[in-house]
Amino acid sequence: MIEQQHGASGADLRLDGVTKRFGAFTAVDDLTLTVPRGSFFALLGASGCGKTTTLRMIAGLEEPTAGRVLLGDRDVTPLRPYKRPVNTVFQSYALFPHLTVADNVAFGLRRRGVKKYADQVEQMLHLVEMDGFGKRKPSQLSGGQQQRVALARALINQPQVLLLDEPLGALDLKLRRQMQVELKRIQTEVGITFVHVTHDQEEAMTMADTVAVMNAGRIEQLGAPVEMYDFPGTAFVANFLGQSNLFAGDVRGRSGADLLVEAYGGRYTVPAARARATGGTVWLGVRPEKMHLTTQAVPDGHQSVTGIITDSSYTGVSTQYLVRAPWGDELTVFVPNSGVAAPLAVASEVTAYWRPEHAFLLPRPAGETHAPVAAREEVTA
Amino acid sequence: MSALGHVAAGGGSAAQVKLEKPRKKWLPYLLLLPGGLWLIIFFAVPSVQLFATSLYDPNGSLEEGYAMTWQFGNYPDAVSAYLPQFGRSIGYAALTTLFSLLLGYPLAYAIALKSGRWKNILLICVIAPFFTTFLIRTLAWKVILSDNGTVVSVLNALHVPLPDGRLLATTPAVIAGLVYNFLPFMVLPLYASLEKLDPRLIEAAGDLYARPVARFTRVVLPLSMPGVVAGTLLTFIPAAGDYINAELLGTSRQYMIGNVIQSKFLKVGDYPAAAALSFTLMAAILVLVFVYVRRAGTDEVL
């Protein structure tokens, strides 16, 4: 019976109009989404955007003010956490300090009355590459090891959904990259639905099949990382998921399959297929790595802006240039250090150019001339 | 330590390290000195003196003086004469500890984890009784429990059967007084250890299918064991030696070993017997505490 309830025969996780208010503050605002079974889903957002509250409502640690949480067709909203086939990997792990690693991992099984848990515990420790650590106490482990134990402790219960609350936040950069790959491997191996909360856009993009960018209690955009990065849905997403150079412009007309945009006195074209708004005020966006720099003539079929280099930072793989455009904004351009072109000097005049099909058009509220910049807790290169 | 090693190996600042080392050696002893002297003068010397007294010839008296006759027989004599009072001391103290734990744990838990901004006010309420002396507070209980007091009349009106129709001068009155007086000694260590408890561990237990009872027995209680051990010791030890509650709220039928020692010293003037009883009580408590701490210690390891 337990195997049936908790087996990998998972169901889709659905949130239906879920809202959470703390007093006058709305943490999560009428959220509706479906996480398909077996997928790796990332909730991405800055701190205070409601992502952790959403996770806690799925776990049952927080009660929604309105709306329902469903697993398949089963409404789990009224269920207490210990009755939900859902487990959590907590931020900073919350391992039981008085229990050994093996007892921590066995905790869920024993509470459900499973008598023969020793083999399963061993298998789980093997899965997270912690063989032989069963007798240790959590305080005798490093951060990365504790992380693995926390994962094993949740996974052993074969939940229908595994919730991960910034699980890699306490690890240093190198270990974090390593654990990202590891987590993805484990998820593929066990086939359980993972819902991963993070503020690290690179982490979300590396691991998740689907990323939902949250802002102020709502989902700004949801989709596969490649599609969202390549063609973001809003100016917020364009700047939260990576960076974008955004020009405030107006659509002036159409020419065949292209839209004509005027921005700061310049004229540009964008394919209509790359436009989320086909008229009125728009943002014209170009990713920094899609822009190229030259001191000579712009190649055919490109569009360009000429400006002055104000800063260059060398990051090894690439060099990041800031180019001040005639209208005063600074454009960011990533130039790969492939050894083809000589480095450009600060204060020299350059032309930044891009292919029209690499640009995208986003709706812009009429009065807005400065692109929304996401407050990021951490800048990851 | 390893940092020191590195500095020394570096060579450049080795001289500085060497300069600091000798000072560190005598500083701790200097800090120990005042407290150590205090203990020697006011605890160690009187203890030795008391032990010597317990071996004096019981036929001596204060007026004629005592002869040191290494009278080890004082011990079996005193203990066999006052076995019931010894039993009561241990029994009352155990009950007091139990009731204090049952009352104090929920209180400490609520203050530590559920009280929010009322935390400090509630803590002050726990400590407030100490602003009045122990004796006055116990005398107040005498008034509260008196035969024509409110408590007795309410209980009588509710037809609750009372021993001899009264509360004062009964065993429950003595134990109630002990519990009242020692409750803060239970609550404060419990609070200190529950306050350190990470609420996320309770959430994690719930997330891992622990029902409320299992959350308590598997996570909260084991993690608060240091507080339980400290609280029970701080309650049991003074309660076992107490005589004020039995004196004021009980009768000779509730007398504990403390009452006997007090009367031997101050009324009868039988110093050797009083000293022998004191030492026996001390030894009994030491043994009980040792066994208890050992057992509680292994429970924690489990």
Which structural traits does this protein have?
heterodimer, A: 381 residues, alpha+beta, six-stranded mixed sheet, five-stranded antiparallel sheet, 9 helices, 22% helix, elongated, disordered N terminus, B: 302 residues, mainly alpha, 76% helix, globular
Brief sketch in words of this structure:
Chain A has 381 residues and is of the alpha+beta class. Chain A has helices spanning 2-6, 51-59, 101-111, 118-127, 143-155, 173-190, 201-207, 225-230, 235-240, and strands spanning 13-22, 25-35, 40-44, 66-71, 74-75, 86-89, 161-165, 193-198, 210-215, 218-223, 245-255, 258-263, 266-271, 281-286, 292-294, 303-314, 318-324, 330-336, 349-354, 360-363. In chain A, the strands form 4 sheets. In chain A, strands 6-7-8-3-9-10 form a 6-stranded mixed β-sheet, with helices on both faces. In chain A, strands 13-12-11-14-20 form a 5-stranded antiparallel β-sheet.
Overview of the molecule:
The complex is a heterodimer of chains A (381) and B (302). Chain A has 9 helices and 20 strands. Chain A is an alpha+beta fold and 381 residues long. A 6-stranded mixed β-sheet of chain A has the order 6-7-8-3-9-10, with helices on both faces. A 5-stranded antiparallel β-sheet of chain A has the order 13-12-11-14-20. Chain A has a 5-stranded antiparallel β-sheet with strand order 15-19-16-17-18, with no helix packed on it. In chain A, helix 3 (101-111) packs parallel to helix 5. Chain B is built from 14 helices and no strands. Chain B has helices spanning 2-10, 14-54, 74-81, 83-114, 119-127, 134-144, 150-157, 171-195, 199-207, 212-223, 225-241, 244-249, 257-268, 271-301. Chain B is globular. Chain B starts with a helix and ends with a helix. The model of chain B is unreliable at 1-15 (pLDDT under 50).
